[in-house]
Each structure stands twice: as structure tokens, then as C-alpha cells.
Amino acid sequence: MSPTRKILATAVLLGAAQAMALPMAAEAAEGKVCKLEISGNDLIQYDKKELKVAGDCTEVELTLKHVGKLPVASMGHNWVLTRTADVTAVANDGLAAGQKNDYVKPGDERVIAHTKLIGGGESTTIKFSTSLLKKGESYTYVCTFPGHSALMRGQLIFG
Ligand code: ZN
What we know:
Layout: H1 3-30, E1 33-40, E2 50-53, E3 59-66, H2 72-75, E4 80-83, H3 87-97, E5 113-114, E6 123-129, E7 139-142, E8 153-158
Parallel strand pairs: 1-3, 2-8
Antiparallel strand pairs: 3-6, 4-5, 4-7, 7-8
Bound molecules: zinc ion (ZN).
Zinc ion binds next to loops.
């Protein structure tokens, strides 16, 4: 191979490497999806008192698993995220909204994200944008099924 051809071949290879790198760069610019998992059981407990979302996450993908056996009507669980200041009011309004609304008041602007209500053996996944969260703010997640909100709650920390 002549020196000129060798330089050309190298340039082609570099070009190919750049072309391959482009989709990865585009993905990084789109954001970082951070996955969280939490479970609820038949003893009215979440398995985590705290969930952390790193400050560079742009989206959260949260999976709630019900590891118990009881049906949704007697031991339903959901995961409802609000500012800590709003949690009592959100839980009370959720109770009034009833099971047909998964115990979440429809259109409640204080609710940052929530899953549907699930029974034993089920799981559900939601995604939400961290643009809804502020660093330094105190957030609480809670199950709004009747009688659960005092026991099933924890802190979500962003940043
Ligand atoms: Zn519950």
C-alpha cells in the first residue's frame, strides 16, 4: 500500500467510526432514564423508605410491584408522588375519589406522578420527567388506598 492510499484508508475508517458514534451522541442528548423499583406487600408496607433520583436523570421509570397475594379490593397499592407539603391533602382527596380513580383525584395538579392501583402478584411501570422536580424540594411518595397512607410512605430525593 502506498503512503497516500494508507492515509485515505485511515480517513475512511475514521469517518465510519464517527458515523457510528453519532447515534450514541444523539441518545445522550435526549436524556438519561433512571430506573427505580419499589414493592408493596400484604402487611401494608413498602420495601423502601427512600428513593434517590440523581440530578442528571431527565426521566424516571418507576416500577411498583405488589409482592403479596391479597386482591386489589382489600389490599390495593399505588405509588403517588407529591411535595411533602401536599401529601395529606392529596391522600384525603384520593380517598374521596374512590377506587374507580385508583384513589387519586382526577386532574390533581399536586400529584407529580402516580401509578394505577394494583393487587397481589401484579406490577405496573410509569415514566415521568424530572423537569417536574426541583432540587432541594422535599417530596413524599405514598399509597393512597384507604388506611395505607400513614404506613406506606417514603421520601424521594432529587439531586
Ligand atoms: Zn397500599
